[in-house]
Amino acid sequence: MASIKNVHIDHPFTDQKPGTSGLRKSTKQFLGDHYLETFIEAILISLNNVEGSTLIVGGDGRYGNDSAIKKIIKICCAHKVGTIIVPQKGLLSTPAASDLIRTYSAIGGIILSASHNPGGRDGDFGVKLNVSNGGPAPETVTEKIYKCTQALTSYQFLDVDIPSLDSEGSFDIYRTKLKVIDGVKRYVSLMEDIFDFDQIGEYVKNDFSIIFDAMNAVTGPYAKEIFVNRLGLSDTSLLNSNPLPDFGHLHPDPNLTYAKELADLLLDQKKYSFGAACDGDGDRNMILGKGCFINPSDSLAVITANTSLVPGYKNGISGVARSMPTSMAVDVVAKELDIPCYETPTGWKFFGNLLDSGKITICGEESFGTGSNHVREKDGLWAVLFWLQILAQKKCSVIDLIRNHWMQFGRNYYTRHDYEAISSEVAYQIYEDLKSRLNELIGSHFASGVIIKADNYSYTDPIDRSISDNQGLRMILDNGSRVILRLSGTGTKGSTLRLYFEKYVKSQNDLFLDPQVALGDLIFGIDKLLNIKNRTKMDVPTVIT
Ligand code: G1P
Ligand code: ZN
């Protein structure tokens, strides 16, 4: 006979503060006694009225996924959640979770993922809460959860065996219904509503060789269904398509450093016309062409410029948004299309109100994230399909598409330099150094311009008027160039310093330079100003995008 157990812990956990995207810690920390459980308890308390409601639960398949889901189900049963929906094998991408929340009118979703951070026993684990609009919990909610954890000394769970999550089924557990569903089917039908699969299928089968890298993470099963079963490609168009608990030792972050195998195939060997990769939980994407890398900020601009080619957006788009450090390439397109363009802080949660209120249709971040109002998360496979639809319509190569885009709109040269996992002390010194000098920098010469604005970015949400301060230090030059400095809110080791550089060029003669060269004066200028190489003792950043 199942019974509800109350567990008491001696001291509340004081370090469960959600970051840019949920609570992210080492797997080992999450495996510690009561660590996951108390955080889930705090989520359920903070959500209010979970009794009788529907909740979506799943994760990106990393080490600990299955056991964490079962623990969560037991705690939800104790809280008398009405229905818990779990996709088969507990595998759920972040965008698919967002869709399921909306489809089932759930109160929210708990997604087990540390996104693009490595997995396995020695890697990272994470818990993200999405709320009833399908989007990441806003700061008011995450703050509430954090406060709750700081005083929490007990949690409850239903002491019962949870059935296998391997196949579809419906189970009554105490007062809760557990439904194990086919999560892939629903997501793929959403994609079919948006895109013309027949047209993409014809193009990729006949004229265009493509390769998709799932990085041994959650998008594998979705990609198999889309690319192989629906678009008719062979299995060989997929790389690393079986989700593994440690992602096969890959760092599932789709960029040129960590998706090296794919990058080599496209950029060095020039073996395919199109290549793409998604991250651990399927919300990020990287787009590559033969011999060409598409910067995510440019990807957002290209998508925005071509929405009329995609059936799901043929009635037009209301507006766009980008995170502050994302390049202003999309602003140029928005101006041309005469639609509003919003600037928000880093993190998808800031797009939620704009999407819900219908002010924007498309949004994106420089960190390989692009999405639309079809869900409330960035969506990796959606972005890949969007590119394929544009290419199938225009029947051109990736490099021609991007070059024509720059020729029409001008080019926002852009790069991001990450100094990963450096000592927190050094990172804060560099950050505080710039912060304390912002005022005096205004009016001074920097690189090939004069700094006309230097501030610590603060955002007022246009819908609920909530204010988010300290969202990144930025320097804006009289020629429109920008240099931005932020500390990452998703890392788990030391601190990660992110530097973002941007310069706009319109002249047709200057459109095809290497971004590291085109932005060289800004890169040099910030090192001179802040002594970054010396202070970090690193000659080059860990990752250059
Ligand atoms: C990073 C990205 C940010 C993204 C987040 C979650 O956050 O920079 O754009 O929303 O991951 O994918 P950061 O580590 O910079 O705080
Ligand atoms: Zn992710």
Description:
The protein is an alpha/beta fold and 545 residues long. It has three domains: 3-181, Alpha-D-Glucose-1,6-Bisphosphate, Chain A, domain 3; 187-409, Alpha-D-Glucose-1,6-Bisphosphate, subunit A, domain 3 (Alpha-D-Glucose-1,6-Bisphosphate, Chain A, domain 3, 3-Layer(aba) Sandwich), CATH 3.40.120; 411-544, TATA-Binding Protein (2-Layer Sandwich). A seven-stranded mixed beta sheet has the order 2-6-5-3-4-9-8, with helices on both faces. The chain has a seven-stranded antiparallel beta sheet with strand order 20-21-24-25-26-19-27. Strand 12 and strand 13 (285-289) form a beta hairpin. The radius of gyration is 23 Å and the shape is globular. The chain starts with a strand and ends with a strand. The relative contact order is 0.11. The structure holds 1-O-phosphono-alpha-D-glucopyranose and zinc ion. 1-O-phosphono-alpha-D-glucopyranose is lined by residues 20-21, 115, 323, 346-348, 365, 367, 369, 488-490, 498. The site of zinc ion has 8 residues, from loops.
Briefly note the CATH topology name of the largest domain.
Alpha-D-Glucose-1,6-Bisphosphate, Chain A, domain 3
Mean pLDDT score:
95
Helical percentage: 25-40%
User: Briefly, what CATH class of the largest domain?
Assistant: Alpha Beta
Compute the separation of the termini in Å: 56 Å
Task: Give the domain tally.
Answer: 3
What is the overall number of helices?
Answer: 18
Instruction: Name the structural class.
Output: alpha/beta
**Biggest sheet, spatial arrangement of strands:** 2-6-5-3-4-9-8
Q: How many strands in all?
A: 27
> Whole-number radius of gyration?
23 Å
Shape: globular
What is the subunit arrangement here?
single chain
Assigned CATH superfamily of the largest domain: Alpha-D-Glucose-1,6-Bisphosphate, subunit A, domain 3
Hetero groups = 1-O-phosphono-alpha-D-glucopyranose, zinc ion
Strand content: 15-25%
Largest sheet: 7 strands, mixed
CATH architecture name of the largest domain: 3-Layer(aba) Sandwich
| Poorly predicted regions | none
